[in-house]
């Protein structure tokens, strides 16, 4: 047997890759597992990134002199590269005085969608895929590489931290909330305005450009067809007159949020649930639909394929801005209900006060683990030094293209 690592060929590999994907659950083995349906497009999760690559591991079995060799795809990996903020420094005016913080950028690579067929694990295939992908990262000038995994997924954590040289870096929280059959109320003291992509870009670059992991190509994200809009929550009497006036004199409290349509990229399904759990979930939906005015919590059809909306770019200002975030959350829930999504999700830093302010179900939410690796030692430390050794900031910017 020989394992060959090569680039994914959509004309010949799609069906075989889908078979491997369907055999793999996300996260650690257990009673319940999360499965991903990529809707027939194996590169859908990296397709919208500035630069991306997908590799497959193909096992070639020789049949001897009288038989032809057979090939089988036993694993795959995706990767993408972009430029992000890794820190900040203060700019100076002509007199040498510090004026304002400006972002320090780095070229960052991201590994996602590493899969190895269950019957071909513990054979070093995952390690070969990672090393080949890292070579592509280095060839294209990436300074750092990072991955996201479940902290409880011991095989994944072991592969990257013990064999590939990654270090545990950040522990953001993935907050998940079901979409009910009833609508959520929105405060009468808040006005929600939908921004144009241009106005949203101006706001994000002004307020979030020094946030860790903020993508330099934020304009590409905001103009993507999967972006359902950026929404600004303002006090009831405040009149939106464009980004220039807002940025020069914003209200005391405000909040912003964008919505990414993951439903058109992939669908998820929880498998392994008992009939009792499925029956209980169905009962909650029936009661919710029958009596929507009671606003009873219900569990959507997560035991069959369901879609989700990703909330990203959440932030704001003011002593009461978390109340405005909750108004945006209610708006996002109602939008997801209209689009027939099963859940809405977001990801925030473990240090972010939004972690406590954003409504979510603990049973559906979890702590993520981001691990990072420096790909070369000949890079300049710049203004932030070695990013691996930096302390976490209050917030991170989670790119919806990689969720």
Automatic annotation (TrEMBL):
Keywords: Acyltransferase, Transferase. One of its GO terms (molecular function) is acyltransferase activity, transferring groups other than amino-acyl groups. Gene3D superfamilies: 3.40.630.30. InterPro entries: Acyl_CoA_acyltransferase (IPR016181), GNAT_dom (IPR000182), Plant_NAT (IPR052810). PROSITE patterns: GNAT (PS51186). Residues 3-185 form the N-acetyltransferase domain. The keyword Transferase applies. Belongs to the acetyltransferase family. This is N-acetyltransferase domain-containing protein. The lineage of its organism: Eukaryota, Viridiplantae, Streptophyta, Embryophyta, Tracheophyta.
């Amino acid at each position: 047997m020989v394992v060959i690592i090569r680039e994914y060929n959509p004309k010949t590999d799609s069906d075989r890759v889908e078979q491997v994907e369907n055999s793999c659950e996300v996260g650690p083995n257990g009673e319940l597992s999360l499965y991903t349906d990529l809707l027939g497009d194996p590169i859908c999760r990296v397709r919208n990134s500035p630069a991306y690559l997908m590799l497959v591991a193909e096992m070639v079995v020789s049949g001897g002199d009288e038989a032809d060799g057979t090939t089988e795809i036993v694993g795959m990996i995706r990767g993408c590269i972009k430029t992000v903020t890794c820190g900040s420094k203060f700019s100076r005016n002509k007199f040498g005085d510090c004026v304002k913080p400006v972002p320090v950028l780095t070229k960052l690579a991201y590994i996602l969608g590493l899969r190895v067929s269950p019957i071909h694990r513990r054979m070093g295939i995952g390690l070969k895929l990672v090393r080949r992908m890292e070579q592509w990262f280095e060839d294209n000038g990436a300074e750092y590489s990072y991955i996201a995994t479940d902290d409880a997924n011991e095989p994944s954590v072991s592969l990257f931290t013990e064999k590939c040289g990654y270090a545990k870096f950040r522990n953001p929280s993935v907050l998940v909330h079901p979409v009910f059959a009833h609508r959520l109320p929105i405060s009468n003291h808040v006005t929600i305005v939908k921004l144009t992509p241009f106005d949203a870009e101006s706001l994000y670059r002004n307020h979030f450009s020094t946030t860790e992991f903020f993508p330099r190509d934020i304009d590409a994200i905001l103009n993507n067809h999967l972006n359902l809009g950026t929404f600004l929550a303002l006090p009831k009497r405040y009149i939106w007159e464009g980004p220039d006036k807002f940025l020069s004199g914003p209200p005391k409290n405000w909040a912003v949020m964008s919505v990414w349509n993951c439903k058109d990229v992939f669908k998820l399904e929880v498998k392994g649930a008992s009939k009792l759990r499925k029956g209980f979930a169905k009962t909650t939906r029936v009661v919710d639909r029958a009596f929507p005015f009671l606003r009873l919590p219900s569990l959507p059809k997560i035991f069959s394929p369901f879609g989700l909306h990703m909330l990203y770019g959440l932030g704001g200002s003011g002593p009461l801005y978390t109340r405005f975030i909750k108004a945006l959350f209610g708006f996002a829930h109602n939008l997801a209900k209209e689009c027939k999504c099963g859940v809405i999700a977001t990801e925030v830093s473990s240090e972010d006060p939004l972690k406590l302010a954003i409504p979510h179900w603990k049973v559906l939410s979890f702590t993520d683990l981001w691990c990072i690796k420096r790909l070369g030692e000949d890079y300049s430390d710049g203004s932030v030094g070695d990013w691996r050794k930096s302390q976490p900031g209050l917030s991170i910017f989670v790119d919806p293209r990689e969720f």
